[in-house]
Amino acid sequence: MRSVRARAALGATVVVALALVAAGLAALLVLRANLTDQAGLQAEVAARETAGQLALDVPYGRLETGDEEDHPVQVTDEDGRVVAVSKDLEAISGTGTDRVTPQPPPAAPEKGDDDGDRDDDDDDDGGAGADPGRGEVSTDEPDFSNGTATVDGDRADYRFASVEATDSAGLTLTVHAGAPLAAEQRAVASVRAAMLAALPVVLLVVAGVTWLVTRRALRPVEDIRREMAAITASEDLSRRVPEPASRDEVARLARTTNETLTALESSVDRQRRFVADASHELRSPIASLRTQLEVGAAHPELLDVEGAVADTVRLQVLAADLLLLARLDAGERPGNARLELGALVREEVSQRTGDRIPVAVVVSAPEPGGLEVTGSRGQLARVIGNLLDNAQRHAVSSVTVEVRAERGGAVVAVTDDGAGVPEAERTRIFERFVRLDDARARDDGGAGLGLAIARDVATRHGGRLTVAGAGERGARFELWLPGPR
């Protein structure tokens, strides 16, 4: 089942069906228990009425048991013998004995013994001719049971209540009286039939409503999908998916999708500009080198070897820069080597023997290890080299490199006394292939990749690269890197 609407409708229908079945079973059980309790109460009333007559020494044959069909009665003695039953009772079960024929009482004691007992009783009573007394009905909670009884040929289910009674002679009798369960069975059957008839209708309504609600809720999702399919087919990243006016998850999905499309469009635009700028930058040294080689092939005496070498070196540097940017864009992670930033700066400055302006290095280390950072030695050396190249290109008479600890990390600040960077251009200069007006000559301005590489490397290392003015004249580039992790 591939449709979300179908799965949602099926899931809701199953959940509602289970809930209705559970609720219906609980309702039937409660209804049955209540009706059974009512039948038990009726049986208890009938049993106590008969027990009251026995306590008054009403003869067994003259017991009034009311409606025999509604309340069949069976009376047993202490030994379990049936001593009385209601009229027309033909069979019974659930009372402890299934006999319905009264049995004669046990044989009476010898006359002499009986007279002797009476004499003794008279003596115990003090010969005062006291009242022989009366029986009583037990006030204990009766015992209940379910069974059947056949009255005048009709067999039915009954709820029996058992009540004990004691006659004036001290004989304990048990009265079993029943109340019919037919009303309870009819009520339970009617309710069950009504529930079974209503269940399919309710489930159909639930499934239909869930289908319609889900369809309405997922309509914006379908619109988003359709628009995304159109964008994929047309490759037009300027298009956007429709955003619903609601503030639910679908609206947030649409906004996130549009944000993703915006970021993707910007990335693709940057990639296109990068390819175009790289092609342009590569075309110039390649064309110059080819021209020199063609002239040299035709006129060896006119070959400009130094120019060819310079163009080759420039081409090599540009290719290396492009390769590094490609690796950074691919998500290359920096190394985990622990580096002492002051030593790295001194080493990089010491290798720059061809600089036109000497570089002054100032290292401030408040404590041992205070200038340690974690990262790639080659990439960080490249950043320092690019900052020094930029300073050498614009400086008039001085270039200074300061290394110090700051805010849980280390800072490399490169300062020159050149023309500086206009405040409006301090963000744009870190973009790729960007050269300001005073540095557009390829011999002086380079390809415009040095600062872009420096910023990307700093970001990959968890740091940042910023530029600010250096007093009245010049620029100050600050590279901050976090301490060892």
Number of helices: 9
Order of helices and strands: HEEEHEEEEHHHEHEEHEEHHEE
- For the CA atoms, what is the radius of gyration? 53 Å
Instruction: Give the integer mean of the pLDDT values.
Output: 84
Strand coverage percent: 15-25%
Our measurement of the CA-to-CA distance between the termini, rounded to an integer number of angstroms, reads: 50 Å
Could you outline the blueprint of secondary structure elements for this entry?
Blueprint: H1 4-55, E1 73-76, E2 82-85, E3 89-93, H2 111-124, E4 136-137, E5 143-151, E6 154-166, E7 172-180, H3 182-234, H4 249-298, H5 305-329, E8 337-340, H6 341-350, E9 359-364, E10 372-375, H7 377-394, E11 399-406, E12 409-416, H8 442-445, H9 450-460, E13 464-469, E14 475-482
What's the short version?
The chain is an alpha+beta fold and 485 residues long. It has nine helices and 14 strands.
Could you characterize what this model shows?
With 485 residues, the protein is α+β, with helices and mostly antiparallel strands. It folds into 3 domains: 185 residues; 96 residues, Orthogonal Bundle (Helix Hairpins); 148 residues, 2-Layer Sandwich (Heat Shock Protein 90). It has 9 helices and 14 strands. The strands form 3 sheets. Strands 1, 2, 3, 4, 5, 6 and 7 form a 7-stranded antiparallel β-sheet that branches. It has a 5-stranded mixed β-sheet with strand order 9-11-12-14-13. α4 runs antiparallel to α5, α5 runs parallel beside α9 and α6 crosses α7. The longest helix is centred in the middle third of the chain and has 53 residues. The protein is rod-shaped.
